[in-house]
């Protein structure tokens, strides 16, 4: 693994909180969960939002990175980890009640991976969720094709840029096949268009030559292809965020720069004000900023927030179930939860006990309530910790006892506003409900193709 700052902090791969086919989250990231519009959601008030004590599931490796998606097509979120020691990817199948089955190794050949990203990279072959990473040791983008049952086929590798530090899935040429943005600590951030079979075309530079540990991918201007936002890439930077509009062929137009405080090191995306337009959130050394998107590729002035724990990237979700996007931050000293007000600002940060937290954290719906939960690497320990969101009660499920299969709670269907399609953010949708990704993506594309915003 390279030893750049980004690697040490664990490059999040999430990106597009909303865009792409990623089931993660993006990578997660995306991530995470986009909250439904506050106005359309009626939910009980969460009196004292927080997290139950972390439950740690053993892994063979010392977990650096974690991802969540539904790898076995049972509509329950699963976990994947990568770390040192075991030297491979491990998968923990989720039971849908907040517990997970024991870790199973998936790719013993991994040499030095970036943060894990997920999505249906091999969409021409099947519809199951795959894992994609940047393997800096071999200089490749590495895809583990999911078999749809929690296992994976032989890795598919494609040569990539030097010092690749993270991959973020997106559809940059609007062909419904997942591509990847590959970021680097050596200023060669590039796009690799996906062939739909797990391989990619040769890297094409994005035009952003800064250090970009965590970039945001979403369709910021609503034209159907995914765009990219980079932080200024400097630990001490002052430049803010640069937004690159996609040309729809894997290349990008001229960027627009937005002021975003003193350190936009990490940039992620979600809808913070419920207007279904992708917004941006930055963080880094010190505090961060939210930039509300106008839906045409432009953004409003930065709204500051405090409470990221000093250095960390936001893990976005709806942790109190009020339909407004929140941000959680991990640090070795403990977690920090910022509840969204639904206007791009946050309530005062609330600390939570994350146990022995690493820097990498992902959000997902691990049990049957309407709130996002968290999974985090457990510092230097061999395991992944699951933190279920609570609302004043804290019944922590124990991993040892496997509950009988009861009637599986149906995933809550988020109400959609009648007047406006909410499907612009492909990735976000995928993160929470992988099974619906394709259909939603298609629908979103249709809507966008018709010029509706
Ligand atoms: Ca599953
Ligand atoms: Ca594509
Ligand atoms: Ca918005
Ligand atoms: Ca919330």
TrEMBL record:
Residues of the signal peptide: 1-32
Q: Which of UniProt's keywords are assigned here?
A: Signal
Q: Which Gene3D superfamilies match?
A: 2.30.30.100, 2.40.128.340
Region (Disordered) location: 395-419, 434-453
Entry protein name: Repeat domain-containing protein
* Composition bias type Basic residues, residue spans: 440-453
Q: Which domain of life is it from?
A: Bacteria
Q: Which organism is it from?
A: Planobispora siamensis
Task: Return the Pro residues bias intervals.
Answer: 400-414
């Amino acid at each position: 693994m390279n030893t750049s700052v980004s690697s040490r902090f664990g490059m999040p791969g999430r990106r597009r909180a909303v865009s792409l086919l990623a089931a993660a989250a993006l990578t997660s990231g995306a991530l995470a969960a986009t909250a439904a519009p506050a106005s359309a959601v009626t939910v009980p008030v969460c009196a004292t939002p927080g997290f139950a004590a972390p439950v740690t599931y053993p892994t063979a490796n010392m977990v650096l990175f974690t991802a969540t998606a539904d790898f076995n097509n049972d509509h329950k979120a699963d976990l994947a980890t990568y770390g040192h020691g075991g030297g491979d990817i491990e998968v923990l199948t989720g039971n849908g009640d907040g517990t997970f089955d024991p870790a199973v190794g998936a790719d013993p050949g991994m040499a030095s991976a970036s943060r894990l990203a997920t999505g249906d990279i091999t969409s021409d072959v099947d519809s199951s969720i795959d894992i994609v990473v940047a393997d800096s040791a071999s200089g490749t983008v590495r895809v583990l094709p999911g078999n749809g049952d929690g296992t994976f086929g032989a890795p598919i590798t494609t040569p990539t840029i030097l010092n690749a530090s993270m991959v973020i899935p997106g559809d940059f040429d609007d062909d419904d096949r997942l591509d990847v943005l590959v970021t680097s600590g050596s200023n060669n951030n590039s796009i690799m268009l996906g062939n739909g079979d797990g391989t990619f075309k040769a890297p094409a530079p994005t035009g952003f030559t800064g250090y970009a540990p965590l970039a945001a991918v979403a369709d910021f201007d609503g034209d159907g292809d995914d765009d990219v936002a980079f932080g200024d890439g400097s630990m001490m930077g002052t430049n803010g965020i640069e937004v690159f509009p996609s040309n729809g062929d894997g290349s990008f137009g001229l960027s627009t720069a937005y002021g975003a405080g003193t350190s936009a090191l990490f940039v992620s995306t979600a809808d913070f004000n419920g207007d279904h337009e992708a917004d941006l959130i930055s963080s880094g050394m010190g505090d961060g900023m939210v930039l509300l998107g106008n839906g045409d590729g432009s953004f409003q002035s930065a709204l500051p927030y405090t409470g990221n724990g000093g250095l960390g990237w936001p893990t976005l979700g709806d942790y109190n179930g009020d339909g407004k996007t929140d941000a959680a931050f991990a640090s070795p000293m403990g977690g920090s939860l910022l509840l969204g007000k639904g206007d791009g600002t946050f309530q005062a940060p609330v600390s939570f006990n994350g146990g022995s937290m690493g820097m990498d954290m992902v959000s997902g719906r691990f049990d049957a309530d309407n709130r996002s939960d968290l999974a985090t690497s457990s510092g230097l320990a061999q395991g992944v910790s699951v933190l279920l969101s609570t609302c004043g009660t804290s019944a922590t499920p124990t991993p040892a006892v496997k509950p009988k299969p009861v009637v599986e709670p149906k995933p809550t269907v988020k109400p959609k506003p009648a007047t406006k399609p909410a499907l612009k953010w492909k990735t976000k949708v995928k993160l929470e409900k992988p099974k619906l990704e394709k259909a939603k993506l298609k629908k979103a594309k249709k809507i966008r193709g018709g010029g509706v915003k």
